Each structure stands twice: as C-alpha cells, then as structure tokens.
Amino acid sequence: MRQLLAVLIAIVPALSFSQNSDPVEVGVGIGAALYQGDLGSSKSELAFNDPRFCASTHLRLNMNNHLALRMNLLAGQLKGNDNSFDDPAWRKVRGMSFTSPLIEISLLGEIYPFGIFTRASRNHTGTPQNNPDLRHRRRIAPYLMVGVGGAFRNPMVDWNEGRDNNGVDPLLAQEDKTATIKGVNFVVPFGGGIRFAVNNQFTIGLEGALCPAFTDYLDGVSQAGNPDQKDWYFTGGLTLSYSISEPREPSVYNPPAPVFAEAALTKPAKPDADADGIPDQDDDCPDVAGTRAMAGCPDSDFDNIPDKDDRCPHNPGKAALAGCPDADGDGIPDKDDGCPSISGVAEKNGCPAFAVSVPGITFKSIFFATSKHHWYESSFTTIDEVADMLAKDPKLNARLEGHADITGIGTNNFLLSEHRAKTCYEYLLKKGIQADRLEFVGYGSDRPASSNATAQGRKLNRRVEIHFSY
Question: Are residues 232 and 365 in the same domain?
Fold first, then answer.
C-alpha cells in the first residue's frame, strides 16, 4: 500500500503541471457497496441483499478529448449475512455474518469514445481551430473506466457460536480464525458511467465499478466457506465534479512562435533487462521485475521476503520459517504440518504428542455435535477418505479413538466417546473394511485436543481420531 501511494503521489503532481489546457476537476460521490463472497450469494452473481453506504472524493485530469486520469478515494462498509438468503436452506442454519470497513484508493483511466468536449470552433474563414480553450463540454458523455489500487479490509465475523449446527467444520473455522484477515489487498476496479454537463464547469454523473479483490479473506472466511473462489465487490452511485479551470470564451487564436533549442546531450541508459527501473548491475533478480525494497526481486505475498528466498511465495509467512505461515504457532510450517490447526510436536508431524501415526500418514479426525454420536455433515469427506485409504492398502489397520468435551458427566462422557468411535467403526464395516483390521475405544474427556474453556475448543474436543498402523 505504501508503494501504491508513492506511485500515485508521484503521478498526480506531474500530470497537474503538464502542458495540458483541458480542465482539472475535483469532485465527490455517494452511493452503495455490494459484496460477493463466502457469506454472499451462493451463485456467482451480485446480490443486492445487504447494500452499504459509501462515499468518495476524486481528482480528475483530462489528458485529451478522449482520455482522463482520476485519482479516487472511497470509504464505506461491506456486509454479508447468511440470514439474508432463503436458498439453499442450510444458509439460515449456518447463520454466519460479517461486516468490514472498506477504504479504497485507486488510479482510474476513463475512456470517452465520443469525447469530453464538442468539436473545435471555426474562425472567421471557416477553418477549424485547434485551440482547446474554444471547446465546450458535451451535454452527455458516456465513458468506460479501468484502474489499479489498494483496498483496506478488517472483517468482523460472527461465527454463530451460540448455535450448534452442521454448517462449519471446526478445524476449517480454526484455520480462518488464526489467518491474517486484516490488511490491504490489490484491486482492479473496472466499469463505466455517464456524465451530464450542467455547464462548462459542473457535471453530474452515474457510474458503477466491479472490483476483484484477489483475496478470499475480504469477509474473513475462506477455508470454512468456498476457498476456490476469491471475493469481490461492486460500488456505484452518483458523482459531482467541478472544473477548477473553466474554458475561455471564443477569441482569436494566435499560435505561439516556435522555440528552437539545442538537442540535449543524454547519457546512454544502463541495461535493465526486466524493465523494473533497477539497473541489472544492482538487480538481484535481473530477469524478473521486482521492487527496489527487495533489491529488484518480486515479493508476491508482500511478507518482506523475496520470492527467491521464500518457500511459500504466495502465502504470507514468517522469516524464521522461510516465508511460510504457521497457523497454530507450533513452529512447523502449515504445508508440512499434519495438524495445522492444533499445536503439536515435530515428532508427530505437527500433531499432538499423544497421536500415533504411520510414517507418511497423519491421523484423521471426525467431529461431532454436543452430546451426540452423529458426526458433522462436513466430516463425511474425511471418513470416506479413510475408507478409501484402507481399501487401497489391505495391510493398513485403523484404531478409532473416541473423545468428548467436559460438558457431560464423567461416566456418560466415556460411554458417549465409545459410542462415537463405534459409529465410525460400523460405518467402515459397511464400506467393506474387515473387522479384524479395526478397533475402537473411548477415552471420555481425558485427552482434550484444545482448551474446554471456549466453544471452539470444545468443538475440537468432540471428535474421533483415526490412527493408522501396520
């Protein structure tokens, strides 16, 4: 974001003082922001369920009759709510929602296919004059726009912890809760509008823009929602613009006398193969465009670790882990961690110390609702994966260990945990796995995987762990 601001600050003064006689305009806008993502419409379309107010201010530089550059600052809010949708029915059961401030700064290019002004006036001989000061603004001027910028987000997610439902896998929710969801992401707003001239100085406009956000954490939810699709948003509304310099009334145009100057002597440019503005002799990555802060190398995930030294170049991480993230803070990068949401030890591939595993195969977990022996709908994928592993390797055995949280009586917890393990056991039998390759046991609440002091911790403790052996 700092680099983007630096570029915009450098461009605007340069354009403001360029030899351009077209008006410079300032303006404001009001409108609405609409969000699309994991807590929006289940279809890839814009939903109008939760519009939020937004306001903007802008500086426009008319480069010529068909092109303008605009620096735009927009502030507002984004909102998404499962309860705003009746279809599918599970949305109201899941009942999650979020709100986030939205602050966007962008540099937009506006293209006017029919021009900003009418054609030049003619002089007393009937010859068209090139003096731009003699032009008048078009009454109606449609335009297309596209630009680049950055958007600040800080989503506040209501996970609906007070209700126990089958909509969210607690492990996936834990990954999202420990992810970095506050920050600035790159956006490419594009769209169009139409401007109506009140006079040569004042215009009223209507415009709208779609903004791909290139992140799935605009709403604070990714793994527990739809991690395969990025979030985006739409902004639209009314704009008001005022020309700082008004075109003058028609007058006789006297072109200035040509000025002759000696050609300036220029030094030959230093080689720069990747055209990033850093000479090859000072560029650590001369064949790939980068930034000066990274000595000419790219940093795709903006974690201040150049891609050439980053083991996870597309996921922000820690320098101590060679640029890789560590959601559970156990010192083992998520990509090498068998249990990325539960703190563990290196000897168990990042899983808790009591976990028993076969080399190369991490244990699996099936999660259950409070005081029930039926697992969450989202755990069907996991237990079917276990059945497939056992079917493909006839020598592989499985031990099903049931666990409970501390909300029940001790004796009942042991019976409940054993019943949960037996439910998984019977399911695998129906899948064709031989009984002599399976065993099940219940441990009650004696082996918690997380703290029982929080609702999220209790969800992680209501589980059946499936450990493998030969």
Answer: no
Residue with the two structure tokens 């550059």: 69
The answer to whether residue 204 is domain-embedded is yes
Report how far residue 240's alpha carbon sits from residue 150's, in angstroms, rounded to the nearest whole number.
23
Number of domains in the chain: 2
Can you give the residue range of the structural domain that contains 104? 2-243
Dump pLDDT digits (tens) for 39-90: 887 676 676 888 999 999 999 998 888 999 999 999 999 999 988 888 777 7
Contact 92, 82 (CB under 8 A): yes
Q: If you search the block for the tokens 């506040």, which residue do you land on?
A: 156
Q: How far is CA 200 from the centre of its chain?
A: 41
Q: Residue 131's domain is classified under what CATH number?
A: 2.40.160.20
Q: What is the mean pLDDT of residues 125-141?
A: 60
* CA–CA distance, 23 with 68 (Å, rounded to integer): 10
Say how many Å lie between the first and final Cα of the chain, rounded: 53
Whole-model pTM: value is 0.52
**Residue 180: which of 149, 213, 150, 218 has the closest Cα?**
218
- Alpha carbon distance 247, 37 (integer Å): 46
- The residue with tokens 């009586």 is 409
30, containing H or E segment: strand 24-36
Say if residue 18 is in the same domain as residue 163.
yes
Distances (CA, A) of 300 to 6, 213, 222, 304, 336: 19, 15, 19, 9, 21
Q: Within 13 Å and on the Cβ side, how many CA atoms surround 463?
A: 24
Residue 84 included in any domain:
yes
Q: How far apart are CA 363 and CA 308, in angstroms?
A: 33
Distance between CA 274 and CA 296 in Å, rounded? 9
Whether residue 148 is found in the same domain as residue 7: yes
275 in a structural domain: no
Domain end among 202, 220, 243: 243
Distances (CA, A) of 92 to 73, 82, 155, 217, 453: 35, 6, 20, 21, 27
Which of the pair, 128 or 146, is modelled with greater confidence? 146
Residue type, 58: H
In the numeric block, which tokens belong to residue 345? 């030890």
